[in-house]
């Protein structure tokens, strides 16, 4: 490996969160959508429709609040290039259980 080549590492995360103030979470997610620099003329719905949809789906709202740059962006020598994250209501999914070794 050359010094100028980055080492690629996969980081898998799962968080369990308890939503104690549903309206606060939904409103914060909707505000994030409003503040996003989205060209709504290129989208299939309007900003108002997207906000209404966001506020009707708690899991989508929670997932929209994940910001990799806030989690890891302050670390020198590390660039978050992409990621996948999601939220699902209910108990942990059998598809993604921690503590069973490194995925192959």
pLDDT average, as an integer?
A: 83
Largest sheet: none
In terms of structural class, how would the helical and strand content be classed? mainly alpha
Helicity range: 25-40%
Query: Secondary-structure element sequence?
Result: HHHH
How many alpha or pi helices?
Answer: 4
Number of strands: 0
| Percent of sequence in beta strands | under 5%
Tell me the radius of gyration.
Answer: 17 Å
Q: Spans with pLDDT under 50 lasting ≥5 residues?
A: none
- Tell me the domain tally: 1
- Overall shape: it is globular
What is the rounded distance between the termini? 23 Å
Note down, in words, how this protein is organized:
It is a single chain. By secondary structure, the protein is mostly helical. It is built from four helices and no strands. It has one domain (1-87). It has helices spanning 22-35, 47-55, 58-64, 68-72. Helix 1 (22-35) runs antiparallel to helix 2 (47-55) and helix 1 crosses helix 3 (58-64). The longest helix is centred in the first third of the chain and has 14 residues, at 22-35. It is globular.
């Amino acid at each position: 490996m050359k010094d100028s080549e980055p080492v690629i590492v996969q980081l898998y995360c799962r968080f369990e969160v308890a939503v104690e103030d549903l309206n606060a979470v939904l409103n914060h997610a909707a505000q994030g959508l409003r503040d996003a620099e989205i060209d709504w003329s290129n989208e299939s719905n309007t900003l108002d429709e997207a906000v209404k949809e966001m506020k009707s789906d708690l899991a989508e709202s929670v997932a929209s609040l994940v910001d990799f740059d806030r989690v890891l962006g302050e670390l020198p020598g590390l660039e978050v290039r992409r990621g996948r994250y999601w939220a699902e209501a209910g108990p942990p999914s059998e598809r993604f259980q921690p503590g069973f070794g490194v995925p192959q």
